[in-house]
Amino acid sequence: MKIICIAALMLIAMIYSTNPVYADGELLTSRDIRIRDPFIYAEARTKTYYMYAQSGNRLNSDYKGVEVYTSRDLVNWTTPQRVLTLPNEEEIKDVWAPEVHEYKGSYYLLVTLSFNRLLSENKPVDEANWPEMYERGTYIYRAESPAGPICPLKNTSHTPADWMALDGTLFVEDDIPYLVFCHEWVQIIDGTINLIQLNDDLSGPVGNPEILFRGSDAPGAKTGPRQRKVTDGCFLYRSPTSRKLFMIWSTFLPGSGYCVVLTESRSGQIRGPWINHRPIFKEDGGHGMLFRSFDGRLIMALHRPNQRGMERLYLYTVVDNGDTLEIGEEIPTISRE
Hints:
This protein is mainly β. It has helices at residues 2-18, 185-188; strands at 39-43, 48-54, 65-71, 81-85, 92-103, 106-118, 134-143, 150-152, 165-173, 176-183, 192-198, 205-214, 232-238, 245-253, 257-265, 274-281, 286-292, 298-304, 312-320, 325-331.
């Protein structure tokens, strides 16, 4: 009994060390903040970085929704402030991948909500350990500032109701807004990256989704018909020098584990075709996004490691030579003073 109690106490201590509890007014470093799917919005007017996270990252969170940390230097962060509190939290299983974009003078929060309700269709693989298929989709909310308050554009997802869809991101091309998102491998085995056009005010989709590419397009992807091909964490970037259109996305590859893959559009347009998939980060980290720091650097933010409870923000410089993107040096996220 004594051994069991000691083991239990050690487990509790480990959980608290990897899921810290914050004091109000405390300044945090990235090592203090457990975060999956980090998204940083650099607000130029106030020179403030806003980092969005699902509240469930924190051990002591008492609500389901989205919160934001702010920083002036990418080293010291404020304690989290609520951005979105979901009213029907008893129905919600998970909140994932929040991100904020400025569009036509307003701010829009895109977030994946997974519900406790199962889809009515059968699993694509009849195996006991195949994951359950829950209702899942990307929702869009509107705000007047990066810190909220936030209002829903509609009560249903912007992705198809009968799809396990996740990780939606906004991209505007020729003044037309698009939602680019992932179709979960759990439902279709070979996950896909899709796009759907949005109304001009982002209030809803226009037409039907289109497939841009599949998880099996990554070099070295599993080939078995019953083996999962993951797609998640898509983000688009157009080079200001060459006007080439790039996308980063994440998957699991044999020998590399969880990684970030770079691909480019042959046509330079959102519909592709998307070619030259290659891993650019293979250190058990992913769900990356790109932003410009206030000193002009192109930076990739991601979480690593991918182990539950251990995830932290990591930042890397990115070199854009016009022809491709290369990962540069890690940016310290802990003050050396």
